[in-house]
Amino acid sequence: MTPTSPTTITLPPSLLPADGRFGSGPSKVRHEHVERLVETGSTLLGTSHRQQPVRAMVGRIRAGLSELFSLPDGYEVILGNGGTTCFWDAATFGLIEAQSQHLSFGEFSSKFAAAAKAAPHLKDPQVIESATGTHPLPVADPDVDLYALTHNETSTGVAMEIRRPGGAGGPADGLMAVDATSAAGGLRVDPTQFDVYYLAPQKCFAADGGLWAAACSPGAVERIERIASSGRWVPAFLDLKIALDNSRLDQTYNTPALVTLYLFAEQLDWMLEQGGLEWTAARCDQSAEILYTWAEQSGFARPFVQTPRDRSHVVGTIDFVDEIDASAIAKVLRRHGVVDTEPYRKLGRNQLRIAMFPAIDPGDVAALCACITHIVGALAA
Ligand SMILES: *Cc1c(COP(=O)(O)O)cnc(C)c1O
User: Fold this and answer.
1) Distance separating alpha carbons of residues 154 and 316, to the nearest angstrom
2) Which atom of ligand 1 is nearest to 315's Cα?
3) Closest residue CA from atom 4 of ligand 1
């Protein structure tokens, strides 16, 4: 029997999601926010980032993140250009004192470990790895001055709870630096369990990339100031003290992308109006419940992550049985405007990866599942 060619499969329009963007970053940007951006006319885009309209927007982002994460007194939000990848380099210069410990369980978490390992001014980092589809746990160690964790490993769809490593003497005293790029705004977090919770706005915050933001505890601010006054050479663009000083004035060291700032601020306002982090996390829970239940009941697909507790509620990874080519499904979806369901390229599995960020309607996740079931039926016909 010749399998049906994916190029001939047609999805009934009634089955399609209202919005077909399921990418894990850049991710769905809400139409409402783009329309409001257009309405700002000549008052925002093309104006100085050192003047009130843009600085007020940076202030909204800093205050909005503080409110969303319920940051305790003394925590500060710092911003800079260059996205999360740039922040890893900045942290290698300005947050790690001598030795870091990294949990490495996918493409993103391995990158910060590599940056710390390559830095000539630091001791070799401790790197704790685990098989893809799982996550390791941090191990308290008095030599470690920074624990590098990843709240949601976007390449594999594994999420982990953020908790300081304990030990006989109570919690370890190294800084907890958490890559929350794809988790922040969609997964619950206890701010007393982190010192630096850093992110870029092209995931849950439904904006464009190119910016990083970091919620910093007083301990982290103290570390930044201490390293800055220690005489260590730091390139100005990666200098967290310069970023801190500018952020306190509601600006960035060099010119930011105003569209990114605008969309970020709008998404934060939207999240807070809807009910804040509990509302967004509950919405992501609902999408995840729909996706994983559908996969488990499908007979042809299953969640890639074995342990239900580790399954991400913001980025779902679904494996398909060998007889069904996941890339053929992604092609049919793409032809219908349902895009970016392809798996993380380096994972190399017969898989689809589906973002369930707060901007994505759980109803659209359900529609996507129905579309995939339809395609699988047609492929087998
Ligand atoms: C997307 C992502 C990154 C990379 O972010 P950039 O802004 O592109 O540098 C890093 N870590 C995680 C967990 C991510 O999801």
Assistant:
1) 9
2) 15
3) 84
Per-residue pLDDT tens for 255-282?
999 999 999 999 999 999 999 999 999 9
- Compute CA distances 204 → 200, 201, 250, 339, whole Å: 9, 7, 22, 17
- Between these two residues, 70 and 7, which has the higher pLDDT value? 70
Partnered with residue 214 across adjacent β-strands are 78, 198
Kindly give, in sequence order, each residue whose CB lies less than 8 Å from that of residue 263, ignoring residues fewer than 6 positions away: 29, 33, 34, 37, 201, 205, 206, 207, 208
Q: Mapping DSSP to helix (H, G, I), strand (E, B) and coil, where does residue 214 land?
A: strand
CA of 202 to the centre of ligand 1 (A): 9
Q: What pTM value is reported for the model?
A: 0.97
Say if ligand 1 is within 6 A of residue 182 CB.
yes
Q: Which atom of ligand 1 is nearest to the CA of 152?
A: 13
Closest atom of ligand 1 relative to the 86 alpha carbon: 9
Domains of the chain by start residue, with CATH: 6-30+276-380 (3.90.1150.10), 42-274 (3.40.640.10)
CB neighbour class for 289 (10 Å; exposed up to 12, middle 13-18, buried from 19):
middle
Ligand 1 pocket member 209 (CB < 6 A): yes
- Calculate what percentage of the chain has a pLDDT beyond 90: 94
Is the shortest distance between the CB of 217 and ligand 1 below 6 Å? no
Confidence of residue 171 (pLDDT cuts 50, 70, 90): low
